[in-house]
Please model this.
Amino acid sequence: MGAFANILWTVSQLITVNYLFTKIPSFQGWSLADLILLLSFGQVYVYVSAMIFDLNLNKLPDKIISGAFDRMLTKPINILFLSSFEQLSIATLIPMITTVTPLMLYGMINRSSFQLLDLFFATITLILGIITLYFLSLAISGLTFFFEDIQSIKEYVVMRTIDLARIPLSIFPQLIQSVLTFIIPIAFIAYYPAQIIRHQTDLFFIFFIQAFLLVIFYLTAQIIWKAGLKKYSGIG
Amino acid sequence: MDPIITVGHLSRSFRSYKKEPGVLGSLRSLYHRDFFDVHAVKDISFTINPGEAIGFIGPNGAGKTTTLKMLSGLLYPSAGQVSVLGYEPFQRKPEYLKKYALIMGQKSQLWWDLPPLEGFILNKEIYQVSDTSFNANIRYLADLLDVTSVLKIPVRKLSLGQRMKCELIAALIHNPQILFLDEPTIGLDVVVQKKIRAFLKTHNQEKKTTIILTSHNMDDVQEICKRIIIINHGSLIYDGPLADLTKQYAKNKVLKLIFNQPVTKTKLKKYGAITHFEVGGLSATISVPRVKHTTIAGDILRDFSVDDLDIAETSLEDIIREIFETSLQPKP
Model:
């Protein structure tokens, strides 16, 4: 049912954007194909994270508070790995294949300047963006060791902010642009991959910033978890 | 023989807070919280040798589970040293984690939606157990615990008893050297309890697995453990053979009497504390001082017409209760 709801949501977004473009020729320099591309990149993040780590990280605060986390700690596996990837949600592959892939193909092929190399670099940016956001989610989940009600913060910091990824970053004020690039780096999961396809960005600048952010968020998650595990008390 | 577990001056404290009830209390807790420290374990020391079966006894909140969690590396000690199999547990090195198993009666180790067999296979991969060893262990353990027929049913569909037996199998697949058991028979019926106790005893004797058991069920402790450690309010108050506990702390013995002529309660009172008296006056149980029990038994035989007299030790449950109630001071 979840997969079906996701398909419906994507279709409704598509209808809205399509209707918008019957009234206006472009949206701050973005064509219909550009916005569909942006939408599809954003959806790739949503489905990939839901399939691989979101479900596990969302359950984690409850497990830490209730003491169910004990079971995971006794296993001879890296605890960050087990906490993040214990359960995979394969069902999200259905909307990914049925809606996102055609949309992405439409957004890319429907332009004269498209090259396969663009897709390669956009994919690299997207993958690095997903990994960076994974480390951010991991770090926030790890804060449960210190503050009990962290799930609502995570919901607003990461899950709600993802909605902004489907809007061109350039329409926001500079401060918001900086926040969405450096603090909650959702710009790298949709805006920058789309800009690579549109030939509107400097690849070296993007990869440099991404590598930097990846290291920072990885280290932050590691530090929070290391200190958190020392503080872990569980119950019972 | 070198100890397998060495614990020295181990302590663990938790920070907690108090919250007043109601909306006002909730609002107040937003800007001010009354924090306080809970000293769950206070400066305890002991050693355990390979192959021993130890009962860890204490009332709720005594610090048993906290100690067990520190030994298994789940909790970081606030102070003191712990060495288990030569490892510092909290470092949680994979080599160490592969050498023990922890079973918590109130928490499932198995995957809720998967059948036990799939959970065992996952554990086989996690603990890198060979196919031969895995198959032999599953056959041996499932037969012994009589759960072969439920191995392919999802865990959430199993009864508590079946689940606990499967938990035991999951814990033993990798042949751990140490088995930490936290109330393994809680909530189980007497038949399953007996079966699990017999299994653990056999496993301890045959495989020489070191067992550290916490339980409120004294039958668990009496049947499986030869040595017990008692803790109360986080402090160690007894560490020694189970048999010595009776000698050291049981101040009374119990006289179980059957009379062939009805007697009155008033007449029996002078011999000791009457713990049971049958209406009709044909049987009674009297608790008498250990040092005088033979003299008192002789007096009763002389004063009454007795059909049967049984002199018994005070039950372990009563001794433990007395120890907790009198709040014995920790060992110096």
About this structure: The longest helix of chain B spans residues 190-207. Chain B has a mean pLDDT of 89. The longest strand of chain B covers residues 34-48.
